[in-house]
Backbone:
C-alpha cells in the first residue's frame, strides 16, 4: 500500500518535470519533494507514526534548485518550516523579519549550513499524549507528558536508538 502511494506520487512528479522541461521552464524552477513526517514501515516492529524514532522524524526532503545540481546527500539539519524562506529566497523576495525559519539555499548550492538543532512535536488524536523532540547532529532528546518521562539517545554511538539514556 505504501509503496503504491509513493510510486503514484513519483510518477506524477515525473510527469510534472517532463512538462516543465518541454516548456523550457525546468532550468528556472525550484523543485521540492517532501512530506510532513516519515514512516516506521516495520522498524522497531511498528507502523505509522506517533513517535520520535528516526524513521518518523527524519522527514524525506528531495530538492532540485534551478539549474539542477549533482545528486548528493547532506547532513545539514533543516525543518519543514524552512521551505517557505527557501522559496522566497529563490524568488528574490525578502524573508519577513517575524519568520523564524531560514533558507536552506546554501545547502542546496553545495555549502554547509542548517540548524544547530531541530524541533518536532506530537499530539495524539485524542490529545492525551503530547511530546516534544529536540535533535542535533549527535543527540536526540524526547520529552513526553506521560509517566514514562522521556528518551535520550546518542545518535553517533547508538544510531538505531536501542539504548535509551534518559534515566
Residues:
Amino acid at each position: 500500500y505504501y509503496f503504491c502511494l509513493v510510486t503514484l506520487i513519483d510518477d506524477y512528479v515525473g510527469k510534472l518535470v517532463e512538462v516543465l522541461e518541454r516548456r523550457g521552464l525546468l532550468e528556472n524552477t525550484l523543485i521540492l519533494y517532501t512530506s510532513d513526517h516519515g514512516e516506521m514501515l516495520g522498524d522497531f516492529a511498528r507502523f505509522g507514526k506517533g513517535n520520535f524514532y528516526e524513521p518518523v522524524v527524519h522527514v524525506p526532503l528531495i530538492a532540485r534548485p534551478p539549474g539542477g545540481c549533482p545528486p548528493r546527500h547532506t547532513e545539514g539539519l533543516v525543518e519543514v518550516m524552512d521551505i517557505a524562506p527557501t522559496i522566497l529566497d529563490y524568488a528574490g523576495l525578502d524573508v519577513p523579519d517575524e519568520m523564524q525559519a531560514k533558507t536552506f539555499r546554501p545547502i542546496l548550492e553545495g555549502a554547509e549550513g542548517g540548524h544547530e538543532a531541530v524541533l518536532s512535536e506530537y499530539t495524539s488524536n485524542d490529545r492525551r499524549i503530547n511530546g516534544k523532540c529536540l535533535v542535533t547532529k549527535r543527540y536526540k532528546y524526547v520529552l513526553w507528558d506521560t509517566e514514562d518521562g522521556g528518551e535520550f539517545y546518542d545518535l553517533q554511538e547508538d544510531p538505531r536508538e536501542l539504548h535509551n539514556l534518559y534515566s
Observations:
- Residues 2-22 form the longest helix (21 residues).
- The chain has a mean pLDDT of 91.
- The first strand starts at residue 31 and ends at 34.
- The helical segments are 2-22, 54-57, 83-90, 105-108.
